[in-house]
Amino acid sequence: MRNYWQRFQALYCVFSLFLAAGIGNASACTISEDMVSSLPPNSREIPNVDRVKIAKMMATAKQWPNAEIGGIVYTGGYIKERNPRAVAAARASELRSYLVQLGVGETNIWIDTRIITEPDVDDRGNATLNQIAVSLVPICEGGCERLCNDPLVTPNTEAIR
After folding, report:
1. Beta bridge partners of 127
2. Which of 29, 30, 31, 96 is deepest in the core (most CB within 10 A)?
3. Do residues 20 and 139 touch, judged by C-beta distance below 8 A?
């Protein structure tokens, strides 16, 4: 895949399919809280505005009944940043630490880091780097399909029957 956001979406879809496969029947929906952001060049710190977004996502995820919260962290270092691999790893470490601080179990956090060779293009046609992306997903014993019809939960996609 060519750009960072497409790779994030592919990772998310694979993870969603993995969760759906564990459900055991043909009913599934997608439940997650998601954010993506661009950072200043060479920045390893997560800006406060993004920390607030993630904290709000966590507050919503904590409403999921009888579900643990999993975190998918996707970080990239742009090829024109100094030592992009180290920058991506540092961003991942910062996000992991923050998610743990918010209450996500360390074993429930999956991280993928990449080198970004080309900027993405946003909905307005502007170049953007999207160096960080976080998704919070439910983890349920026996599968999470029951959340699809729970009034406290708003799925991202409709149930498939």
Report:
1. 121
2. 31
3. no
What is the C-alpha to C-alpha distance for residues 8 and 148, in angstroms, rounded to an integer? 23
Q: What is the pTM of this model?
A: 0.80
* Contact status, residue 87 vs residue 81, Cβ threshold 8 Å: yes
The answer to whether 155 touches 31, Cβ cutoff 8 Å, is: yes
DSSP 159: P
Q: What is the mean pLDDT of the chain?
A: 86
The predicted structure's pLDDT at residue 66 = 93
Greater pLDDT, 107 or 11: 107
What is residue 155's predicted lDDT score, i.e. its pLDDT? 86
Contacts of 17 (CB under 8 A, 6+ apart): none
Helix H or strand E encompassing 73: strand 68-78
Task: Report the topology of domain 4-149.
Answer: 60s Ribosomal Protein L30; Chain: A; (3.30.1330)
Asked if residues 15 and 156 have their Cβ atoms less than 8 Å apart, the reply is no
Q: Measure the CA–CA gap between 120 and 90, rounded to whole angstroms.
A: 21
Residues 23-35 pLDDT 10s: 444 456 899 999 9
